[in-house]
Amino acid sequence: MYITAQPIPHAVTGIADAAAAIRDMRIRGAGRIARAGAEAIGSFARGYGGSSLEEFLRDLDGAKAEILASRPTAVSLWNGVCASAAGAYGAATLGEALEAVASGADRFIESSSRAVEAISEIGARSVSDGDTVLTHCNSSAAVGVLIEAHRRGRSFKAYATETRPWRQGLVTARELAAAGVDVTLIADSAARHVMKRVDRVFVGADTVMSDGSVVNKIGTSQIAAAARDFGADFAVCAETYKFSPKTVSGEPVPIEERDGGELAKAGEVPPSVKIYNPVFDVTPPGDVSRLITEEGVMHPSAAYSVLLRRFGAGAAGLGGIT
Ligand code: RI2
User: Fold this and answer.
1) What is the model's pTM?
2) Which atom of ligand 1 is nearest to the CA of 204?
3) Which residue ranges have their beta carbon within 6 Å of ligand 1?
4) In tens digits, what is the pLDDT along the chain, a chain of 322 residues?
5) Count of domains in the chain?
């Protein structure tokens, strides 16, 4: 089984350190940052030194806000942090609140890791002998599908896109090669060129919107369009904690823009050149063949019912994952 839950580096202690590690992408991947956020909130409760419930709830809100400010796009971070903290708000005593948060964080971390493993098993069934597949960026869910398919003896070839500017595709290439998968690294701009040979695309997700749109690493939407044009199946491997309750009430998903220095080093272009560096984009549901979740394979239009079931009628973003 592909090991997915990577604990946050032990050098990271406390809320500020965890927020910095997520912001700087020393911890990256929508699932991993959600587990890192949950672990930080759980540790915050375990190490809390205050003396009153009111003080703890106020400090907890501050801790959540600091973690959530680290990266705006992956709703997994918001769902993980809110699910971890949710039990504090109904507690009668400080002790009850501290225990609720510590256990809530542990539950989220465990259930989110199991979700990635379930997706690996479910998704692996759709890989056939002789397939050529393509993946973009580095998604533990999508990579897990491919590694599990290989472990089950499927014979297939994989393309991994470099994924500028952070080049997460090299992580994917290393992970697939280490597992024994036949993998070829390509430039992002070669994705459409190879798509005529591709049978299936597997990507991850940072956020799934209530209309089935998928927010993922920049470049995903053009790969999905190429897959549509060439008749390749386009599967999004997304745990349900990446489904955004806030989009039910119409809240837009913020697309993170990162420093231009990730695209061009100082001096490579004159100061008059502006640099625009959005690191996510939105793939419309019409370009998504299926969502592969821990609850099974579904059409993107099922996203709304998943959200209502997971978050209830108040799916306007008022509650975390149960
Ligand atoms: P898993 C990553 O974002 C990529 O967009 C990837 O597809 C997505 O998170 C999901 O990753 P970044 O953190 O949760 O590299 O499947 O900016 O690992």
Assistant:
1) 0.94
2) 7
3) 28-32, 137, 139-141, 168, 203-206, 216-217, 279
4) 444 444 554 455 699 999 999 999 999 999 999 999 999 999 999 999 999 999 999 999 999 999 999 999 999 999 999 999 999 999 999 999 999 999 999 999 999 999 999 999 999 999 999 999 999 999 999 999 999 999 999 999 999 999 999 999 999 999 999 999 999 999 999 999 999 999 999 999 999 999 999 999 999 999 999 999 999 999 999 999 999 999 998 999 999 999 999 999 999 999 999 999 999 999 999 999 999 999 999 999 999 999 998 887 665 444 444 4
5) 2
Sheet holding 157-161, edge to edge: 182-186, 157-161, 132-135, 200-203, 233-237, 290-293, 296-298
Q: Are 48 and 98 in contact (CB under 8 A)?
A: yes
φ/ψ (deg, to 5) at 78: -65, -45
Are residue 49 and residue 186 in the same domain, yes or no? no
Indicate the residue among 69, 84, 118 that finishes a domain.
Answer: 118
